[in-house]
Specification:
By secondary structure, this protein is of the alpha/beta class. 45% of the residues lie in helices and 15% in strands. It starts with a strand and ends with a helix.
């Protein structure tokens, strides 16, 4: 069995910042999860996971999120544009769920929608991702999830998969209706979060698992984070699942894509970490 595994889920700018806050708070208390043997990242969690496994300490990640406060104080223009799903895309998400009983069926419908949508160009997406991800070499511990836009099947990219790191993380973040699908290894891929907000079942066979789930509720028929954590426990793993508490949920708000909320969400995650130091520490160091 692999020993210590960290699962970082989807959640947009706000959810990624909350994860960074939790990681920094735990590290400050002596529970540094950056030494995980395996890190499984989905969407925003793929960005955080790539930076973490590349050697960026949780405290440094938190500092970068906190720097957003200065831009927020200068007003909405300085904070950057707020990304939102268009009404048409939102309707497409709802239609994708109708009559579909499996995550793969929903993902195929969303894949068709994404392939036909008019969004920013692929080059613009990669440029945006490059600004978020100053890492180019695959960290050995990292696994990045994405969903095949044609088949709806989940893929997990890693250092031995032959995939480009930047494209893999961009694919994991390619939310239908917002970003276009990303070409990788001869196929088109969309956001790994359309199948599951955590894809924590990829940690099957791992002994100690910590899951950070900014969005614990699944999209459509996809498995909830709580259900996946329960399955891992039933198979013999020690699992700690952390979801936003009430204070963090207020900061996350209704639009997790709102980049202006990053600093507040990072602070909320750091504050929440104190409540999890003992249980996560016992699991991680036990």
């Amino acid at each position: 069995m692999a020993d210590r595994t960290l699962v970082l889920g989807s959640g947009g700018h706000a959810g990624g910042a909350w994860q960074v806050g939790v990681l920094a708070g735990l590290a400050e208390a002596g529970v540094d999860l950056s030494g995980a043997d395996t890190v499984i990242g989905t969407s925003a969690g793929a960005v955080v996971g790539a930076r973490l496994t590349a050697g960026e300490h949780p405290e440094e990640l938190h500092r970068r999120q906190s720097e957003a406060a200065a831009r927020e104080a200068a007003g909405p223009e300085a904070a950057g544009p707020e990304a939102r799903i268009t009404p048409g895309a939102a309707l497409g998400f709802l239609r994708a769920q109708l009559g579909r009983r499996t995550p793969e069926a929903v993902a195929r419908r969303l894949g068709r929608m994404a392939l036909g949508a008019r969004t920013s160009s692929g080059e613009e997406v990669l440029e945006a991702m490059a600004a978020l991800l100053p890492v180019r070499e695959w960290p050995d511990a990292l696994r990045v999830t994405a969903v095949d836009a044609h088949t709806g099947e989940l893929g997990a990219f890693h250092s031995g998969s032959g995939a480009d790191l930047l494209r893999a993380v961009a694919a994991s973040c390619a939310m239908p209706g917002l970003w276009p699908p990303v070409a990788l290894c001869g196929r088109w891929w969309i956001d790994g979060g359309v199948r599951s907000t955590t894809n924590a079942d990829l940690a099957r066979g791992h002994r100690r698992v910590v899951v950070l789930a900014p969005l614990s509720r699944a999209f459509g028929p996809g498995p909830r984070a709580e259900r996946l954590a329960a399955r891992l426990r039933a198979e013999g793993a020690d699992v700690a699942l952390i979801v936003p508490d009430a204070a963090a949920r207020r900061e996350l708000g209704r639009n997790p894509l709102d980049a202006s909320r990053r600093a507040a969400c990072a602070r909320a995650g750091r504050a929440q970490a104190a409540a999890h130091v003992r249980d996560v520490g016992d699991l991680w160091h036990g």
